[in-house]
Amino acid sequence: MTLLVFAHRGEAQAFLTYFPWQPHSSISQLWTYQDYALLICQEGLDKAAISLTQALALLPPCQRVINMGIAAGLDTQVTLDKIYEVRSIYRQQDGEMVFHSFTCEQPGQVDLITTYQRILDPEAAAQLTPFGSLIDREAWKLAQVCQYFKIPFSAYKLISDHPGEGKILCDHIKEMAPHYSQKLLDYYLEKNENAGQQESEVTHDDLPEDWYFTKAQADLFHQYRQKWQRMDYHWEELLQRPDLKEMKSSKKHPKAKTKYLLDQMKYACNPMREQWDQQLEQWSKPFRQVNAQIQFDPQLENNLVRLRAQFSCADDIERLRAALANFDFQALNHFLEGKSLDV
Amino acid sequence: MFNKVFVENSLRDHPRTQSLLDKLRYQSVQYISDYRDVFQKVKKPYLQKRNNLNLFLAEKSGQRVKLAPDAYGQAGEPHYYFVHAYNCIYECKYCYLQGYFHSPDLVWFLNHEDIINDMEAIIRDHPSEQGLWFHAGEFSDSLALAHLTGEIPLYWEFFGKYPQAKLELRTKSVNIKPILELPPLDNIITSFSLSPQDITKKIDLKTPSLTHRLKALARLVEKGHKIALHLDPIIYTPTVLEDYTEMASQICDAISVNQVEYISIGVVRFTKDVYHQVEKNYPESIIHNGDFITSFDNKIRYPRPMRQWLLSHIEQILLNKGFPKTSIYQCME
What we know:
The complex is a heterodimer of chains A (about 350) and B (about 325).
Chain A: E1 2-6, H1 9-18, E2 22-23, E3 30-33, E4 36-40, H2 45-58, E5 64-73, E6 83-93, E7 96-103, E8 110-115, H3 122-128, E9 134-136, H4 139-149, E10 153-161, H5 166-201, H6 215-230, H7 235-238, H8 242-249, H9 254-269, H10 271-288, E11 292-296, E12 305-309, H11 314-326, H12 329-336
Parallel strand pairs in A: 1-4, 1-5, 5-10, 6-8, 8-9
Antiparallel strand pairs in A: 2-3, 3-4, 5-9, 6-7, 6-10, 11-12
Helix pairs in contact in A: 1-5, 2-4, 6-9, 9-10
Chain B: E1 2-8, H1 15-23, E2 26-32, E3 55-58, E4 65-67, E5 79-82, E6 85-86, E7 91-92, E8 106-109, H2 112-125, E9 132-136, H3 146-149, H4 152-161, E10 165-171, H5 177-180, E11 188-193, H6 197-203, E12 204-205, H7 210-222, E13 226-234, H8 240-254, E14 260-267, E15 269-270, H9 272-281, E16 293-294, E17 300-301, H10 304-320, E18 328-330
Parallel strand pairs in B: 1-2, 1-3, 3-8, 5-9, 9-10, 10-11, 11-13, 13-14, 14-18
Antiparallel strand pairs in B: 4-5, 6-8, 7-12, 15-17, 16-17
Helix pairs in contact in B: 8-10
């Protein structure tokens, strides 16, 4: 679902008449139509945050949120009555810039500053010019909510005025609202057509057929597949390898078969990894055979080895002693220095 | 080139400011009281350096010359770096600057005389029989824009007076004209960071090719200037050893092994913040093919056996080409 967010009804009016919206049963300022929703979040950061959070909680999963509306233009880089796609969103509160910023999904042309209070004084506006070209009252908070919900956020803003032009300007903006809203609708319809095309290009991840994957294994598969793509490897070819075919037709547990497949993908990315996995297994095995377990530093940064063992008779101690005596500590040091690797 | 140039009020009439504003291309100039009122005040996305890069002309206050961390340079002598600029025009995908200042905007400090005075104080406090090092380019490429910033002759003159102090100018650029216009000094070394051509193309965005860098260093050597090499960061690929063998041959074709003052080798590493930035900014990069771990110093690195394997094999490649063992050192390991 795509959620369109406006601060004021005046900005949304052309959208409200263009689509046959149905009012949402729980939120008065929310409407839905097919795979779209429209929210009037009201002006100001707090109201915007509460409204959007409530809408996202009640609506079916949203794929993107688009904030549209008017904004004040701070400098000569932006032209009145023109729509701009926002690049980054900054925030000012109590006269100070807030460090955290948000970046919109689309590439964007200009940066926007969301202010807690209305900027009516040209001097206050001048202090904001180093950081952006537009001012609004809600986008930063909307972007923050979207980040929490992990939903891509975009903003398109129409320049209605320059700050500091006072009450007369407010009346003028009200008068101009139908025009602004129609411009935003035209812009959105044009953009939306393109956006739809982009969405259709997204391919969905597929797991290899007839292999069982746990959720964690599926995540790993996708991770390795990305690496393989970057390295121009084709995982489909891997499945044709005799050892993989043999593994697939074996009677092993499905999860173990998939583990083997994932290991092969991992080792292809980094052949050293296969060697050190084998080496560590070779050192671990004799200890497992005597009911003991040795554990190497998981990051392989140092030669600290932990030993955990159980014994219930003198023979157990003897066997453990033998396993320890056979453990080649010098070989471990060599291994950590990369000396026993051969790629 | 620049969107906005911010100039500190105190530098409004500084001759260097005027000279720079005449030379640079920008949309607008804005005068501010202190660059810190704007720079780093908000988190500006790193990739905005591609289309929304600002420049600050400022004075560096506070610590202008800093002691470098252990394993920064060749062991045995103290190493310092001086801060005359922040950020870089290049876009190397592993670069720690993408997570360091939280802004890609360039800052050029114009008070080079203050930096030089600070270095002079350190040299005077230092035993005269022992050498010491100063490095430029910790937070920026020290030559990439030197034809505009114009500070190289000042440092040349200063280091000419103190032969026991060495200056290293680290670069990935081929902008050697400002150096070629000056007489060679034994204590000034231009060091080039090199990676195999394929890595340079895929990772060191907007930087000159390996071939061009090798031509630049050969030209400096030909004119009697001292040069050094940084084979850092080494990034693992399935062909890493072949690629470094080929690059070593290319280096030897360009210059003779005994014309290199020193070679540092280092394996790719990140702080956690930088690594997250790299993941965010370059999710498709081949850098992510490596298995990374959090290492002894909380940096993100390849596991130790892999790092050591890379370092020892690449060192061996250099030794096989005839580079003296004493000229090779491992950086930050």
